[in-house]
Amino acid sequence: MVTIADVARHAGVATSTVSYVLSGKRTISTDTQERVQRSVRALGYRPNASARALASQRSNVLALVIPLRTGMHVPVMMQFATAVVTTARRFDHDVLLLTADEGPDGLERVAQSSLVDALVVMDIELHDERGPVLRELPMPSVLIGYPDEADGLTCIDLDFVAAGASCVDHLADLGHRSLALLGTPSAVYERQTGFAQRTLTGFAEAAERRGVLGVETPCEHTFDAILTTVEQLLDDHPGITGLVVQNEPIIGPLLDVLRRLGRRVPEDMSLVAICADDVAERQVPQLSSVTIPAERIGAQAVESLITKLEGSDVPGLTLLPPTLTARGSTGPAPHGDLTTA
Asked: Residue 276: which region, alpha, beta or left (left: phi > 0; alpha: psi -120 to 50)?
């Protein structure tokens, strides 16, 4: 294992000089800094994480707060978690995963423990009770998602209002006049979770703007629930020819349900989903979809935290524009789809 003394011998300087170059605590000449850095690279030296933490009075640990609540789709959450962990390692930070639904009390407990330097917080509600606490905590935080009252917070998310609207526009451009949003489980709406509520808003506003029928319904994850929901939806609105799906676990079963009900995709029913690209691409037919950029959002959340830890400012709210990719699950409306009721 390469030590700081090995670097000092290789560079021809004192061990203390290497320490000062790495910590930045004293001014060292440019020539000496470059000589030390060349030796660091040549020997593959990595500063001891514990020593760095003691020197900086930091733990070099970030907390990722993902309360596991009813109706959440854990694989999607883990995509964000993986991006956060991977990016944190690029900055020599580890990640403490917190999954208990402790609300504001949990955030205060973590802040008082000195276990972590900063927080990434997920599953944000429109009226999130954690917001006031995060504004007052003596450590930086970044939210993946954003509450209605976002002043004083740093938030990053996909623009779900625009995502819902883009799905409607895609189907309306293909001539569909009667659309439905198959949304998340009821519990997610009841909590007023931001991403679900904002997609619903974008869907409804775009349907009104385009002059098409737009109905919304939550959908639970079991096959029987999907079948019952779709049957009821088509009984109530038999003219529906376009579905928008924001509920990743139901996508595969939904295609089976539509086949069972005699609705071909896309000849009789077009379908566009808000989901990961790999989920959309492994369906038959492949789904037109708005991708959820979990990797990009998770990485940007960590990068913003590191910037804040270094004392620099970051934007208060960053919304990533949606990207819709048309694939085989959407096509022209069936002939005769002229109804808006």
From this structure: beta
Q: What is the distance between the terminal CA atoms of the chain, rounded to a whole angstrom?
A: 72
pTM surpassing 0.90? no
Contact 310, 258 (CB under 8 A): no
- Indicate the residue type of 73: H
Q: Look at residues 53, 79, 75, 77 and name the one whose alpha carbon lies nearest to residue 67.
A: 77
Q: Are 131 and 65 within 8 A, CB to CB?
A: no
- Per DSSP, the three-state class of 110 is helix
What's the one-letter identity of residue 202? G
- Best CA proximity match to 181, nearest among 291, 73, 273: 273
In the numeric block, which tokens belong to residue 130? 């954690």
The whole-angstrom separation of Cα 6 and Cα 36 is 11
State the DSSP string of 257-316. HHHHTT--TTTT-EEEEES-HHHHHTSSSPPEEE---HHHHHHHHHHHHHHHHTT----S
Sketch out the chain's domains with CATH numbers.
4-47 (1.10.260.40), 61-158+294-322 (3.40.50.2300), 160-292 (3.40.50.2300)
CB atoms within 10 A of CB 72: 19
Instruction: Write the pLDDT tens digit of every residue in 231-241.
Output: 999 999 999 99
Q: Which tens digits make up the pLDDT trace of 264-278?
A: 999 999 999 999 999
With a cut of 70, which residues of the chain have pLDDT below it? 1, 23-26, 47-57, 336-341
Q: Look up residue 273 and give its two tokens.
A: 């989903």
